[in-house]
Amino acid sequence: MKCQAAVVSTTPIADYALLSDRHSAALVSRDGSIDWLCFPRFDSPAVLARLLDDEAGHWSIRPSSPFSVTRRYVDRTMVLETRFHSDSGTVVVTDGLLVGPDNEEHRLGAEAPHVLVRRVACETGSVELEIAYRPRPQYGLVSPILTPVNGGVTSRSGVEWLVLTTPAVLRPGAGGMHGLLQMDAGETMHFGMHSSTSEETPARVWSQQELSDRLDETVRAWQAWSAHHQAYEGPWRDLVHHSGRVLGALSYQPSGAIIAAPTTSLPETVGGERNWDYRYAWVRDASLTLEALWVAACPYEAADFFAFLAAAATLSSHEPLQIMFGIGGERDLTERTLPHLRGWRGSRPVRVGNGAWNQQQIDVYGELWSAAFRLVEMLGHIDDNTRRFLAGCADLAARRWVEKDQGIWEVRGDPQHFLYSKVMCWAALDRAVRTSDRLGVVGRVDWWARTRDEIHATVLRDGWSDEAGAFTQHFGSQDLDASNLMMPIVGFLPADDPRILATIDATERHLTDERGLVYRYRTQTGVDGLAGEEGSFLLCTFWLAQAQAMAGQVDRARATFERAAAFVNDVGLLAEEVDPATGELLGNFPQAFSHIGLVNAAWEISEAERRRAGKPALQLWKGLS
Question: Residue 446: which H helix or E strand, with range?
Fold first, then answer.
């Protein structure tokens, strides 16, 4: 199929691929355009943002004549290889954010130089390429002066300095620099975009050999990380390993923070208002990510995250744990809109910051403790700061479980007694009691145990509905919520308990779209306080598969998993949701939650199949210290 470049702000979300140096991220479209790039951090103002508005900046390299595209990640890396096939020849563009030197074991990206490299190699024939470079710092607000220099183009915007290394001659026009480049078979050229601030070593023009060597170094570094971190052998091995790399790519190396997604304001429904900034570290998302990393990568990343979280959080008996932080530990994430951006497919508003930062969501204590429990199992120890931090979280769960909150889905309507929040407070106290010998606490364990049992009895009494034939969204409700699929996953009830089996069946019958993908809940109830609808949720579909596997329904679990996994794009990435009408990916991209669900469901199905075959459970990591 031949194609020409589309208007990029309407480009399907699934057409993008992720680049990461574990400091920042870029999205590259199938037609060779970098339409999203934030330097020097994931949450920095974008310097390329055509993802959200045609005029907000891009950098494209592609054939000037019609072409078809195939692409892949270089084996076991997050370096992208895009192959353009035209009538006159074939060109391969290899894109990567440099991770820098010294990437031993867990230091991948520690010295990233903030350089995006594009290697262009003509494989066959002769191909004319068109190059367009239009940086627009500050989310498209700034049109910088572009100055040609020997071997490149420079621009400055306030304290930000951008230098493009280009072997092609570019000339000003149409608000940027443009040029044509004729390449013949066997020729290879390198382009680079280097960013710096006034506090860093100034960005510069790089030599062709430097860019080539550093890109090769980045490929080797990702491959070494994968070899050192990834031990899973089971169903969907390649998908699980790739998801592990995606989760690693969404981690901020300097602090250990893990972002929910590298983008902002990709909508949950086209043209709707459910558009949020996901470039922050949610306690919930990051904790669940660490559990997935145990399967798909390596448990050592847990130590970095807990060090970050313990430093960022301030706990007291009067204030709840903040649910999210900036990737450097920032607490104030005040939300604002960017009215100059039209949004992806006209979906407004575009938001930066996130207004949920000061919500009460008491489920976070359970997610945090579930990851901590895994950390203790794997690493065998916790430091003093983390020990005090976790004990404080257990205290808060014991005190606050009786309160209403905004819940896992961060509703912007009235707080409720959400069932999932109560269950996760139970999980926090259950893990705290079981780990109490390592916490060094005195006189609190009995209180934790009594409160845990009280929560359990309350959920069974007030959370079950005979009318719905299932556990429901909140006390007094008859509505279903996919988060209740987590009840067997966290061990609140056995997966073969009749009430759990009924909830699994009710979810599959009444909370799915025509493709069998699971909704979080029905928006028509108005519980979230927002207008419009949303797509089906990939994480929830993977939860259904995981719960089915735990219940011994292995064939059903496999079928559910395959329905969700079918929505990975051509380079193995998942967004948050799927449009029930069109099947398109929706929401911020790629989404950690979706890849977490994939990993954990694949693991549970693998274990269920081993149990069915009479085989022992797999041990991924042994002798860690």
Answer: helix 445-462
Determine the Cα–Cα distance for residues 50 and 492; give it in Å rounded to an integer.
Answer: 46
Q: Which residue blocks in 519-613 are alpha helix, DSSP H?
A: 538-550, 554-565, 592-612
d(CA 60, CA 246): 24
Radius of gyration of the chain (CA): 24
Nearest CA to 263 out of 26, 80, 53 is that of 26
Sign of CA dihedral 187, 78, 347, 145: negative
Contacts of 19 (CB under 8 A, 6+ apart): 25, 26, 27, 28, 78, 79, 80, 95, 96, 97, 116
b/e 445-467 (16+ beta carbons within 10 angstroms → b): beebbebbeebbebbeeebbbee
User: CA nearest 609: which of 568, 563, 548, 560?
Assistant: 548
What does the DSSP 8-state code read for residue 3? B
For the segment 42-63, what is each residue's pLDDT rounded down to a tens digit?
999 999 999 999 999 999 999 9
Give the C-alpha separation, 246 to 83, whole Å: 22
* Whole-prediction pTM: 0.95
Counts for the chain of helices (H) and strands (E), in that order: 14, 24
Dihedral sign of CA atoms 300, 592, 29, 113 in order: negative
Which tokens hold the place of 564?
């969700």
Q: Are 154 and 146 in contact (CB under 8 A)?
A: yes
* Tens of pLDDT, residues 453-477: 999 999 999 999 999 999 999 999 9
